[in-house]
TrEMBL record:
Organism: Kineococcus xinjiangensis
Residue spans of biased composition, Basic and acidic residues class: 215-237
Location of the region described as Disordered in the Swiss-Prot/TrEMBL record: 215-264
InterPro entries linked to this entry: Thioredoxin-like_sf (IPR036249)
Source superkingdom: Bacteria
Segments traversing the membrane: 6-27
Keywords: Membrane, Transmembrane, Transmembrane helix
Signal peptide start and end residues: none
Protein name: Thioredoxin domain-containing protein
Length: 264
């Protein structure tokens, strides 16, 4: 009996010793992992040395949205290339109606939602007369078969890497609105949904309409808002201290007699 108890005690002691060695090994391994992570910068807020003085923070858009290419206002380039079927095709965007160029790809997950929107039968919400042309990269970079499967029936699709380069497209999905009358880019931007595209187009066309109105007013053309101009003239006269009944507003008999001749 005594021998059995002694054997059990020795066995228990050996087991405890082995467990102690195992625990020490695990703690040492854990310490090595933490030290390696610390050297790589994990757990530290400043992973790079701070420069003295103020530091410029680069401007950026939210993740997933491409930076504008910066071609707004530049001259537009006509679109030419191939259809997914291999036929040559060309669209003149520098004369005629406005054209929305949608730069898409077959491998972009965000683009797939927009491709599906084109297959929807509901209106796209573009301004009246605006033409939609989808542009993918050429067959050397894009699968014509994949593009053909994604394209809706009747959708204008052009495969051309050269057009991507001409408009400096940073990636997909990307959209460029071309003013067909002026032959210039009226607006550009990236979007993750078609609703965002509608807002981009609305903003671009609104800015252009405002610029046209300002240009006409600057050249003395009648914008059809005579009451507005008259009210503004009254405000300017009052600001100058000229109120109704001011002597400068009264015409002499000779000046009144000259009015018909001046108007004629």
């Amino acid at each position: 009996m005594t021998v059995l108890v002694t054997v059990l005690l020795v066995g228990l002691t050996v087991a405890v010793a082995l467990l102690g060695v195992l625990v020490v090994g695990l703690l040492r391994s854990h310490a090595e992992i933490l030290r390696s992570l610390h050297e790589l910068g994990a757990g530290r807020e400043d992973t790079a040395p701070r420069a003295a003085g103020p530091v410029d923070v680069p401007f950026g858009v939210r993740p997933g949205v491409l930076e504008p290419a910066g071609v707004t206002g530049a001259g537009a380039v006509d679109v030419s290339g191939e259809t997914p079927d291999g036929d040559s095709v060309q669209f003149s965007v520098t004369a005629g109606p406005d054209t929305l160029l949608a730069f898409l790809s077959s491998g972009c997950l965000t683009c797939h939602g927009i491709w599906e929107r084109f297959r929807d039968r509901t209106p796209l919400g573009l301004p009246a007369g605006t033409r939609l042309v989808v542009v993918t990269q050429g067959t050397e970079r894009e699968s014509a078969t994949a593009v053909e499967k994604l394209a809706a029936p009747g959708l204008a699709v052009v495969m051309s890497t050269a057009v991507w380069e001409a408009y400096e497209v940073p990636g997909s999905p990307y959209f460029v609105l071309v003013d067909g009358t002026a032959g210039r880019v009226a607006g550009e931007g990236s979007a993750t949904s078609w609703e965002q595209v509608e807002r981009l187009v609305t903003e671009a066309t609104g800015d252009r309409a405002r610029d046209i109105a300002a240009h006409r007013h600057g050249h003395g053309e009648d914008t059809g808002d005579g009451a507005h101009r008259e009210a503004r003239a009254d405000r300017e006269l009052l600001a100058a201290g000229i109120a109704p009944g001011h002597p400068s507003l009264e015409l002499t008999a000779e000046e009144v007699a000259e009015l018909p001749r001046a108007q004629g």
